[in-house]
């Protein structure tokens, strides 16, 4: 007996986003596609400028001028959010069923408002609570994210909190209306290692207790393995590889993914120094017609002048590469000679 597959809570299909600048059109996203199932955690991984945050902003409906979504679709439980009716639906979802933890809590929190005022405003707007009810719920939320003396903290201002505590406040704001999907954009940026671990543990605990789906945006592969079931690796506005976290870490298919893993510190690695990926990402003002990574790839060939098609991997993931599984970084001199132009 065949069972129907569950509908993804979020699905992004062939999304293209452009920014009209004085220098020309910047192609911020170039055909991004992925899905998130209920209760799942997906990591969007890549270096700065790869399009991770632009993807999150597009999902949240925060792409404003000079940016625009030029093609593709974003679906919430199978319903498009980009049609006129869907845009009304998206407005009702934001902050309630769909919420986001932004990168820098100090610039996201209003310095002239107390922490309590932030929480009360969100709860009154989306949950229609009275002021006393919203205040009481705010205290519960601060306690839930591990902030001590929550009632006293409600009267304090953002500058009176440490970086880790401000990030906890951002998480409290994001889960205030018990959302179904939480987008966490670099939630551990500028935090020390101990606080990073606490924030990630908090997200994992909240996911279990609330049944959250999470999209975790990061450039740090080290924080992905313990929290995420699936990984999508972004480069130059596109997803170049996607699959289960275990498979991507153990058997990366794309040379860029291999390079990211190779440049990440490991306790079992005895090398004296890490080796970075040479070169820089291409300009998205004039992206290459072929593979965007070819100028930095040690195994690039003439075939890479043509954009590679997305293909399935043996482990059930996908990769955009003409020579997937080739060990691009194991012996650079040898592989470069074999695949020389």
3D structure, described in words:
With 341 residues, the chain is α/β, with parallel strands linked by helices. It has a domain at 39-48 and 94-266 and 275-319: Rossmann fold, CATH 3.40.50.300. The chain has 11 helices and 12 strands. It has an 8-stranded mixed sheet with strand order 6-7-8-3-9-10-12-11, with helices on both faces. The protein is globular and about 65 Å long. The N and C termini lie far apart (52 Å). The relative contact order is 0.13. The model is unreliable at 331-341 (pLDDT under 50).
Please describe the topology of this protein.
Layout: E1 10-21, E2 24-36, E3 41-45, H1 52-60, E4 67-76, E5 79-80, H2 84-93, E6 98-101, H3 105-108, H4 115-127, H5 131-144, H6 150-153, H7 163-175, E7 181-185, H8 193-210, E8 213-218, E9 230-235, E10 238-244, H9 245-250, H10 255-262, E11 310-312, E12 318-320, H11 332-338
Parallel strand pairs: 3-8, 3-9, 6-7, 7-8
Antiparallel strand pairs: 1-2, 1-4, 4-5, 9-10, 10-12, 11-12
Helix pairs in contact: 4-5, 5-7, 7-8
Shape: globular
- β-strand percent reads 15-25%
Walk across the major sheet and give the strand order: 6-7-8-3-9-10-12-11
At CATH's second level, what is the architecture of the domain at 39-48 and 94-266 and 275-319? 3-Layer(aba) Sandwich
Sketch the major β-sheet: 8 strands, mixed
Q: What is the rounded Rg?
A: 21 Å
| Structural class category | alpha/beta
Domain ABC transporter: 10-261
GO molecular function, one term: ATP binding
InterPro entries: AAA+_ATPase, ABC_Ni/Peptide_Import, ABC_transporter-like_ATP-bd, ABC_transporter-like_CS, Oligopep_ABC_C, P-loop_NTPase
Keywords: ATP-binding, Cell membrane, Membrane, Nucleotide-binding, Transport
């Amino acid at each position: 007996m065949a069972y129907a597959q569950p509908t993804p809570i979020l699905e992004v299909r062939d999304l293209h986003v452009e920014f009209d600048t004085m220098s020309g059109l910047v192609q911020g996203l170039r055909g991004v596609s992925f899905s998130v199932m209920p209760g799942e955690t997906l990591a969007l991984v890549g270096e700065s400028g790869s399009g991770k945050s632009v993807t999150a902003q597009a999902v949240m409906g925060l792409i404003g001028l000079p940016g625009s979504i030029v093609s593709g679709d974003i679906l919430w439980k199978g319903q498009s959010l980009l049609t006129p009716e869907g845009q009304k639906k998206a407005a009702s979802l934001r902050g309630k069923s769909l919420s986001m933890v932004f990168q820098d809590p100090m610039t996201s929190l209003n310095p002239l408002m107390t922490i309590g005022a932030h929480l009360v405003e969100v709860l009154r707007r989306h949950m229609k609570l009275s002021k006393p009810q919203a205040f009481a719920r705010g205290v519960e939320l601060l306690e839930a994210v591990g902030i001590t003396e929550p009632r006293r903290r409600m009267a304090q201002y953002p500058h009176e909190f440490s970086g880790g505590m401000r990030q906890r406040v951002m998480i409290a704001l994001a889960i205030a209306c018990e959302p179904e999907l939480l987008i966490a954009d670099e939630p551990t940026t500028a935090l020390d290692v101990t606080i990073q671990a606490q924030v990630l543990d908090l997200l994992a605990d909240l996911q279990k207790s609330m049944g959250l789906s999470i999209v975790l945006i990061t450039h740090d592969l080290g924080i992905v393995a313990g929290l995420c079931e699936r990984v999508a690796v972004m480069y130059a506005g596109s997803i170049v590889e996607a699959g289960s976290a275990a498979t991507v870490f153990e058997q990366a298919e794309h040379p860029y993914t291999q390079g990211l893993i190779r440049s990440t510190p490991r306790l079992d690695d005895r090398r004296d120094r890490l080796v970075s990926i040479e070169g820089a990402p291409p300009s998205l003002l004039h992206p290459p017609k072929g593979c965007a990574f070819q100028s930095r790839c040690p195994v690039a060939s003439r075939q890479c002048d043509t954009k590679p098609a997305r293909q399935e991997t043996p482990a059930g993931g996908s990769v955009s590469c003409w020579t997937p599984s080739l060990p691009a970084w194991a012996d650079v001199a040898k592989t470069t000679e074999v695949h020389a132009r």
